[in-house]
Amino acid sequence: MEKLEIYKSDSYVLNDAFDQSVMNLHIQKKQNGYKSFVICGCEAGDGATTVAINVAAALANSGWKTVLIDGDMRKKNRYKRLNENAGRGLSDYLMGKSSLDKVIYETTTDNLSYIPCGELIDNPVRLLCSNKMNEVKNELANTYDFIIYDMPAINVSMDAKVLAVSVDATILVSAIGKTSKKGLVNAANALAEVNANLIGTIINKTDMDQYITYNHDYDYFKNEKYIKKSKAKKSKGDK
Question: pTM score, two decimals?
Fold first, then answer.
């Protein structure tokens, strides 16, 4: 089976941001034993898929055996960047059309596997509630260190809410200038209604100025700020 290409970012700033997510997920695993996470947007277009891909790749690059599952079975494959060369996926297994090993694809990122959404399903809720979905979750939990589910926005469909109650934790994605305050509140309330374990929100689509505002020393080591300051003080002392 051909390996699926995973986009790798060369942006120091972007990688720094996802490293923070890796650290937080590592802490959750260490302190609480969490290994399965739903990542979903509050509203459509928040960029949850991009976040899920980058988080999964960052975890894999840290040496953790990771699997990323595309749980959005309502959207056709041609609209998804990773599914173009994937013939079978999650829905095919849940409908008994394929074995689980046939829908797990290796990727060009070491330690990272991928399960596409599979055949388009108008209403996948019953499949997500099925016993076969429980089999998927149990099998993956026995094989992988981290399991990342990329799900549709919580305010768009009930799919993410269905899965959120059976994973270890859920992470919402909101976008600067895109996600409304009402949308964020409604999404959090929807998860609270079913007692899903919401552990935080990733803020997406921030510009550089906004990122620097929240992370003043994001380039501390890259630009060797401490060394520059030390040299400056030493020069003044030599005079």
Answer: 0.82
What SS3 state is found at 66? Answer: strand
The verdict on residue 235 lying in a domain is no
- Element of type H or E holding 67: strand 66-70
Spatial separation of the C-alpha atoms in residues 66 and 25, rounded to whole Å? 12
Q: Which domain holds residue 157?
A: 12-206
H or E element at residue 60: helix 48-61
The CATH number of the domain holding residue 71 is 3.40.50.300
Is 44 among the domain residues?
yes
Give, for all 239 residues of the chain, the pLDDT tens digit: 667 777 666 665 566 777 888 899 999 999 999 999 999 999 888 889 989 999 999 999 999 999 999 999 887 655 566 666 677 899 999 999 999 999 999 999 999 999 999 888 888 999 999 999 999 999 999 999 999 999 999 999 999 999 999 999 999 998 887 888 898 999 999 999 999 999 998 887 654 454 445 555 545 445 554 444 444 444 545 54
The amino acid that residue 79 corresponds to is Y
Structure letter (DSSP) for residue 9? -
Q: How far is CA 20 from CA 167, 195, 199, 222, in A?
A: 21, 26, 14, 16
Q: What span, in angstroms and rounded, lies between the C-alpha atoms of 210 and 204?
A: 11
Q: Domains in the chain: how many in total?
A: 1
